[in-house]
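re: the backbone from monday

yeah here it is again, tokenized this time
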């Protein structure tokens, strides 16, 4: 029995190839059944995200399963087979475990440390289990995967620093305001990064978000999408600045939309409350002199980019610690995986001993003739106890082989099977 993983991701394949392989909505249950129908495949799990398509499987023979799964992935897809084969990566046993642990811990993500991938793996496991495609091995592996990812998050800061401009803006806001809960936000313009920053602020507990745009219709549309606050025209900025706590600006204006005079006048109505400007526009929307006003905190795209760069460097250091955790957990799971090889031998040995016990007990009962229930129960206990004690040392010896290397394990199991005259299929 082997653990195998085959797939491609953002590092090995362009999006055009990845989207060709992505399962259509509503087809995953059928696809899991197709995978299980492939020769030698016992368990399967399909992981499909915007950055990767992978199949994890338990199979009788690793190389044959990988070849079969690769052909199945490409079957009926409009892909160039040469490009497809070149983009595929194939892992077996401990390397498959290592790959899965790294993916779940976001060490293999486009943005190292992003948390979304773990939720996607949990959903893939839920769907595979619901389709009856996972059993003992994958169930054990996936639960261990979730534990490893949690350990990486707990013991490192790999996900603790913002590595996107929009999220860096939120981190800076937290430094100005201890608590973002209930704060009012003004979004000026409809830039993508500004919108993402607004969404991040909402997830951190920010309150109403006002949207101001040169075109009011566009402001109304964006306000509805954010689901918070009202839409304004640029002529309403003075009134809005007196109400809000955070301003995110991303217009295409050639001149600043927030001038020194406009900001100064708004401060008079704020009674000492700070005003935080996140200027993501190029050219800048907030006049440079605004930062000189007491109570005004201004960050532009260069400030945010520097924060992102520092955080990326910090995550690289944390990633090394995360890799060490993954390596340790791979060794532990590898030991459990190897131990599975001894189970058939133990099962067959105990089964053979039980057959002998029952046959000899039946012969003895026949020779004894009529005996009472108490005597029959005593003989049952005696024979069970004898078999258990006689098998204790041999079974302990066999179990110890689960911790040996593959070749040594095979040799010792073959010896045990010859000594007890068991079938040779699993041992040789």
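seq for it, each position gets an aa:
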């Amino acid at each position: 029995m082997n653990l195998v993983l085959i797939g491609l991701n953002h590092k090995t394949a362009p999006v055009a190839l990845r989207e060709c392989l992505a399962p259509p909505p509503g087809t995953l249950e059928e696809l899991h059944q197709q995978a299980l129908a492939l020769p030698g495949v016992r368990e399967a799990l399909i992981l499909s995200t915007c950055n990767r398509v992978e199949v994890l499987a338990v199979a009788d023979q690793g190389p044959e399963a990988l070849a079969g799964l690769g052909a199945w992935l490409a079957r009926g897809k409009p892909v160039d087979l040469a490009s497809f084969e070149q983009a595929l990566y194939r892992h077996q046993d401990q390397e498959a475990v290592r790959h899965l642990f790294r993916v779940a811990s976001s060490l293999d993500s486009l943005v190292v440390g992003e948390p979304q991938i773990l939720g996607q793996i949990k959903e893939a496991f839920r769907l595979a289990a619901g389709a009856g495609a996972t059993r003992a091995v994958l169930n054990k592996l996936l639960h261990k995967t979730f534990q490893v990812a949690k350990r990486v998050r707990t013991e490192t800061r790999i996900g603790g620093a913002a590595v996107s401009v929009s999220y860096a803006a939120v981190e800076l806001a937290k430094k100005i305001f201890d608590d973002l809960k209930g704060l009012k936000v003004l979004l000026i313009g409809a830039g993508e990064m500004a919108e993402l920053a607004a969404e991040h602020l909402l997830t951190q507990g920010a309150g109403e978000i006002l949207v101001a745009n040169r075109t009011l219709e566009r402001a109304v549309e964006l306000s509805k999408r954010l689901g918070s606050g009202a839409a304004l025209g640029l002529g309403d900025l003075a009134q809005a600045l007196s109400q809000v706590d955070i301003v995110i600006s991303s217009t295409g204006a050639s001149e600043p939309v927030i001038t020194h005079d406009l900001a100064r006048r708004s401060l008079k109505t704020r009674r000492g409350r700070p005003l935080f400007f996140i200027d993501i526009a190029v050219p800048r929307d907030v006049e440079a002199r605004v930062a000189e006003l007491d109570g005004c905190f201004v960050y532009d795209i260069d400030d945010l980019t520097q924060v992102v760069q520092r955080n990326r460097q910090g995550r690289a250091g944390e990633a090394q610690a995360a890799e060490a955790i993954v390596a340790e957990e791979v060794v532990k799971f590898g030991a459990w995986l190897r131990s599975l090889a001894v189970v058939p031998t133990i099962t067959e040995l105990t089964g053979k001993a039980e057959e002998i016990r029952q046959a000899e007990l039946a012969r003895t009962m026949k020779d004894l003739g009529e005996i009472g229930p108490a005597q029959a129960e005593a003989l049952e206990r005696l024979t069970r106890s004898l078999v258990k004690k006689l098998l204790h040392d041999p079974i302990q010896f066999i179990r110890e082989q689960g911790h040996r290397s593959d070749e040594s394990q095979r040799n010792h199991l073959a010896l045990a099977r010859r000594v007890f005259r068991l079938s040779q299929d699993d041992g040789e």
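The first strand starts at residue 2 and ends at 9. Residues 185 and 370 are 92 Å apart (CA to CA).
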